[in-house]
Each structure stands twice: as structure tokens, then as C-alpha cells.
Amino acid sequence: MALAAEELVEIEKVLAWPDAASLAYAALRQKFPHLAWIRCDASDVTESPFRSFRDFDLHLLDKADHCARITADPARASGLVLARRMAKS
Q1: How does 43-56 read in b/e, with b if 16+ C-beta sit within 10 Å?
Q2: pLDDT of residue 1
Q3: Nearest C-alpha neighbor of 32 from the set 12, 11, 53
Q4: Residues 6+ positions from 76 with CB-CB distance below 8 Å
Q5: Is the pLDDT of residue 88 over 90?
Q6: What is the dihedral of CA 52, 58, 59, 64, to 10 degrees?
Q7: Mean pLDDT, the chain, whole residue set
Q8: Cα separation, 67 vs 13, whole angstroms
Q9: Which three-class secondary structure string do you get for 19-65?
Q10: From CA 76, how far away is CA 26, in angstroms rounded?
Q11: pTM for this one?
């Protein structure tokens, strides 16, 4: 199931919350249980993010084939990677 444009808008709203670092992952998993969710450190992902927010880089995950991979195409995305960026002082 591809990521709908409306879902992407809702996900981006959550990631823009002032307290997204502590609440976003749990809130998004609860709101979108049909999507695959991966949480990691931003330094673990070498691909350019689909979108960047204060606390996270958002990557789209294509898991349609045998191996999951990062994609830039929301129509192919069936999951997301939330890559946590370190807070800037």
C-alpha cells in the first residue's frame, strides 16, 4: 500500500511539533499502524532525506521487493525511516 498524500501531510505535521523528539515515533506508529516504521540515528542513513525537520530526517521506505530500500517516490513508499538528528546547541 503506497503512502497517500494526505498521510504524508499528517506525518509532516507531527514531525514539526516542538516536542517531536520525544513523542513523534510513538504517535506516528499509533496513528499509522499500516505503515512500516524504522527509527535510527541520522548518521546511520547515507541517502538524502525526503524531508528534514528540526529533530528528524524523514526517509521513505520501499519494501515492495525482496529487500527494503530508501526511495524518493511517495507512490512506492510503504514505510518510513525516522532518522534522529542530534540537537544543535
Answers
A1: eeeeeebbeebebb
A2: 63
A3: 11
A4: 2, 60, 62, 64
A5: no
A6: -150
A7: 91
A8: 29
A9: CHHHHHHHHHHHHCCCCEEEEEEHHHCCCCCCEECCCEEEEEEECCC
A10: 23
A11: 0.89
Tell me, what DSSP letter sits at residue 10?
H
pLDDT at 23 (0 to 100): 92
Q: In angstroms, rounded to a whole number, what is the distance separating the alpha carbons of residues 22 and 60?
A: 21
Q: 31: which 3 cell numbers?
A: 496513528
Give the model confidence (pLDDT) of 57-72 as tens digits: 999 999 887 788 999 9
- What element of type H or E holds 82? strand 79-84
- Collapsing DSSP to helix, strand or coil, 87 comes out as coil
Residues in the chain: 89
Q: How confident is the model at residue 2 (pLDDT cuts 50, 70, 90)?
A: confident
**Residue type at position 73:** D
